Amino acid sequence: MIKTILFILFFNNITLFVSDTTTTKIDFVTEIDSTQLVRDTILADSALALDSNVATINRKPPLIYPVVENNAFHVGEKLTFKVRYGFVRAGTATMSVLKETELNGNPVYQIQTTAESVSPFSWVYKVDDVVNSFMDKRGLFSWRFEKKLREGSYKIDMFVDYLPEDSLAKIHTIRYRDDTEEERYEVKVPPFAMDVLAAFYYVRTKSLRIGDIIKMVNHDNKKVYDLEVHVYMREEIDTAAGTFRCLKVEPLLKGEGIFKQKGRLLVWLTDDEYKYPVQMTSEVAVGHITTELEKIEGVKHKIPSRISE
Q1: DSSP characters for 238-262?
Q2: How buried is 109 (Cβ within 10 angstroms: 0-12 exposed, 13-18 middle, 19+ buried)?
Q3: Helix axis angle, 24-58 to 2-16, nearest 10°
């Protein structure tokens, strides 16, 4: 605005130096026009400044993306579990850090879990689940979540894309019944929310002590809720993969998961910096399920909490 006014004043002075043949009337008109122009310019610049201030007030502050130190898991890690229904082997489950990749230009880990029933259990209740989480490599929050659950007559596919800048999750679900039911919808979620699988791997990066409660924001389906993981006690657990010193924890989950979780879920994590899940027990739609670590692959380091193999 100041530069505009100075230019107008400079132009008016040049007008005043016109030869004496220029009439006073002309000089007078020039002064009136320039004064009006100055006034109009001030008003215009004031309006622009007001618009700029309003835009500044309405502009959302930039998101500060979290950075989480991760020494707990790496690409190539694969954990295999045997799944028991009571004393009967019901199936096999895996948890794998498949690869590092990019999603919309963001570096991510692709984490995958699978669960598959075996005969004769599958004759009664067939299970074939695949769940993928694409979690930010630096901040360990969710960018995308996919699950394909096949549990008895229960069949559903779900695909979720997270948009932290918009505080939004875009969801596409397909339910397979007599007729296929498809639905697309959006849910408002806080930035950097986690799906249930990403939350599990995030907890593995934390330093856990007895009595701790780890809190995080979790999203599942149409719900957003605070997920808490309670750390209870130390125990030794014998598995097919060896005997481990463990921490017993309980995540308070509310959503659907592998084997369509229902009721309490207790998890035993190795009492070291890697927090490998050694054993899980849960109530499911068809009873009580125990998941026991059977094999660890893709890990080159020694596991400090393993007492014997």
Answers
A1: EETTEEEEEEEEEE---S--TT---
A2: buried
A3: 170
CB-based burial of residue 134 (10 Å sphere; 0-12 exposed, 13-18 middle, 19+ buried)? buried
Sequence-distant (6+) residues with CB within 8 A of 166 are: none
Q: Is the dihedral of CA 180, 184, 189, 192 positive or negative?
A: positive
Q: How does strand 128-136 pair with strand 287-297?
A: unpaired
215 sits in which H/E element: strand 213-220
Percent pLDDT > 70 in the chain is: 77
Q: Are 204 and 274 in contact (CB under 8 A)?
A: yes
Digit-coded pLDDT (tens) for 14-44: 333 333 333 334 343 444 454 554 455 555 5
Residue-averaged pLDDT of the chain: 83
Instruction: Tell me the helix, strand and coil percentages in the chain, rounded to 5.
Output: 20, 50, 30
Closest CA to 280 of 288, 268, 298: 268
| Contacts for 130 with CB less than 8 Å, ≥ 6 apart | 112, 113, 114, 147, 148
Beta partners for 96?
78, 112
Residue 137, Cβ density class (10 Å: 0-12 exposed, 13-18 middle, ≥19 buried): middle
Residue segments in the chain with a per-residue pLDDT below the cut of 70: 1-58, 253-263, 284-286
Task: Summarize pLDDT for 140-198 with one digit per residue, the tens.
Answer: 999 999 999 998 999 999 999 999 999 999 999 999 988 899 999 999 999 999 999 99
CATH fold of 78-308 reads YmcC-like fold (2.40.360)
Alpha helices (H) in the chain, listed in sequence order: 2-16, 24-58, 121-124, 196-204
Cβ atoms within 10 Å of 175's Cβ, excluding its own: 14
